[in-house]
Amino acid sequence: MSQPTDKRRRTFLAGAAGATVATVAPGMVLQSIATAKPRDTAVTDKARYGMLIDTTKCADGCNDCVTACEKENGLDLLSKPEGASDEQWDMQRPRWIRTVGLRNNLTGRVTRLPMMCQHCEKPPCVDVCPTGASFQRADGLALVDRHTCIGCRYCMMACPYNARSFIHESIEIKSTAVPRGKGCVESCTLCVHRLDQGGTTTACQDACPHNAIVFGDLNDPNSEVSKAMAKQPTVQIRDDLNLNTGVRYTDV
């Protein structure tokens, strides 16, 4: 039987998000983000956020989008646990975005591309979550409520993109804009903390030196991402699953 959410805890965390530095436990410090404060308007379905990634512009060996994501969300603040091997740490460290090679079974061609949460219109992770911790916002973002996540990892097994990570170790330093904690599942949020403060870009988009990533409102025909998608054919990874992903690719 699930326990009711402690509203006082939510209030405290919301207040901490706007603070300069908050110490929540001995040895645990939230990194200062002065602009991180709760949004004051409700999320609606007027917009659906997504992105287009032009794989023809992705250069071999380029990892700038991964580096930017980890810095933006505090993943770069993690260090290998004492006693853990390099191999174990490489397997268990959280990754919100990674570069992968996909092989076309018909042509044999291998395309290198960034892979992250695809923010499906019908997200399997939400369907299997027993507590409602995995949820979908009205604007299409698939997120995780860390207050109700019990770490069962059903969502990780359901995700066809291997896009979610489990936090195995305690996190001593974190960003106030991106709360994270041991025993929870997490994944790419399309920089929701930026969106909720009026931002219009993601960290990976800003960092890409090849302009391979275009982010925006898929429902707005005049948005940059909609215009880019109208100019060229796009594909979904695993389009056979009919998930209507919010992340699309070209030339895969």
CATH topology: Alpha-Beta Plaits
Mean pLDDT: 86
C-alpha-based Rg, rounded: 18 Å
**Beta-strand fraction estimate:** 15-25%
**Helix fraction bin:** 10-25%
Distance between the termini: 45 Å
CATH architecture: 2-Layer Sandwich
Counting DSSP E segments of at least 2 residues, the number of strands comes to 12
Strand order of the largest sheet: 1-2-9
SSE sequence, one letter per element: HEEEHHEEHEEHEEEHHEHE
Low-confidence stretches: 1-35
- The coarse silhouette is globular
Biggest sheet features: 3 strands, mixed
Structure write-up:
The protein is α+β, with helices and mostly antiparallel strands. The chain has one domain (16-250): 2-Layer Sandwich (Alpha-Beta Plaits), CATH 3.30.70.20. It contains eight helices and twelve strands. Strands 1-2-9 form a three-stranded mixed sheet, with no helix packed on it. A hairpin with a 5-residue loop joins β6 (134-136) and β7 (142-144). The longest helix is centred in the first third of the chain and has 11 residues, at 7-17. The protein starts with 6 loop residues before the first helix and ends with a strand. Mean pLDDT is 86; it is low at 1-35.
Write a short abstract of this structure:
With 252 residues, this protein is α+β, with helices and mostly antiparallel strands.
